[in-house]
Amino acid sequence: MLAVLANRTYGRLFLAQIIALLGTGLLTVALGLLAFNLAGDKAGTVLGTALAIKMIAYVTVAPVVGAFAAQLPRKAFLIAMDLVRAAIALLLPFITEIWQIYVLIFLLQSASAAFTPTFQATIPDVLPEENDYTKALSLSRLAYDLESLTSPMLAAALLTLINYHWLFSGTVAGFLASAALVLSVTLPISPATARTGGIYDKTTRGMRIYLATPRLRGLLALNMAAATGGAMVIVNTVVFVKGRLGLGDGQVALALACFGGGSMIAALALPRLLEKLADRRVMFTAAIYLGCVLLIAAAFLFAVDGSAVSTAATVASAGLWPGLLATWLLLGLGYSAVQTPSGRLLRRSAHAPDRPAVFAAQFALSHACWLITYPLAGWLGATLPPSAVFCIFAGLTLVAVALAARVWPSDEAETLSHAHDNLAADHPHLGGESDDCHAHAFVVDDLHPEWPSRVG
């Protein structure tokens, strides 16, 4: 896997990704602490709304930018977006009103929504060999898991020395370093696309392929299952740790690190596991497991709430702090096990020219799930007891799993028999076969706009 780092251009781009992710991780911790400083026990609502704004930017901006990215000078565009993000992050420590958080987060995440798909589309051109590109995808996923583990730990260490406002400077440094690394390499010229049609067709092609493919509709439901567990952690950690347990900033970072640690453990174990088990089985098992962890946490909190535990000292002695760390670790395991195999599904669900569009659809749709779960976690966390919030989110997770099972058949075959009523008998695609006996590994494309009802 690490052999692809010998490619100088990709090696520097991967380093740019890691540094920018570390800066973004510091931003996540600092933003939670800033929200608590401004809103107190209502921080979950503020953070949930801010993260919902982030998702709105991702879902709305990314497809539009993706339609025009090929027409822009890619290197200059990436550098410009990094500099814009750095400038916005530089303003965050000076925020004094909650509405200012919302405005700056929208601007910063709009720049990220423009940067990320363009960056992802660059990697296949830098590494044109399929095997190298697959390794790069695995490294990218590992980088996200490492960031989830490392950033909170780094934040915890820094918070022993500095005020949380200084964490934003780490975000600025990360974006500036990313810009410098992109500047240091020569990027391939964006390949011309053979696709025709207007802006609507180009921006919705990936979405149409995605929603027409049963396994990807199942993936969308599983994205929702993963988002429920992840949103509970990201939105409500600061509220549970500081508001309910009365602990400090360092403990907030430690709790987030436990979630990242669980995700990292799963990511390291999954490659070998996926050699023996099908993607579907692993992902469904992990999603059901997520729902069970949330249910167990709800039952534990209900028991604690019913035992007249009130003060921070008695709450800690009741085992809530170690219980929270263990729950976050277990949620990280399940979350990663649901998310990691998704790239394998996307790769085999589209031809090479359509894969960027399908990956972009996954980017937008998965973030649409977070757009629902982020504010829901914040609003419910501000109005209901924690045990009730965990119970509701467990129910949402299991409903999502049931929906995924309904739209993604367990006996799905790679090769499907289907008819082409609109093709002449001598069409090259049929290869001389009888139209009634035509069968091959099926993906949705121009010749196959719909999933066949007959399976061979």
From TrEMBL:
One GO cellular component term noted in the UniProt record for this chain? plasma membrane
Q: How does it sit in the membrane?
A: Multi-pass membrane protein
* Compartment(s) where it occurs, according to its Swiss-Prot or TrEMBL record: Cell membrane
User: What UniProt keywords are attached to this protein's entry?
Assistant: Cell membrane, Membrane, Transmembrane, Transmembrane helix
Q: Which PROSITE patterns match?
A: MFS (PS50850)
Q: Which InterPro entries match?
A: MFS, MFS_dom, MFS_trans_sf
Mostly located where? membrane
Name-wise, this protein is MFS transporter
Output one GO MF annotation.
transmembrane transporter activity
Record field: transmembrane: 12-34, 46-69, 172-198, 219-240, 252-270, 282-303, 315-338, 359-381, 387-408
Where the record annotates domain Major facilitator superfamily (MFS) profile, the positions are 9-412
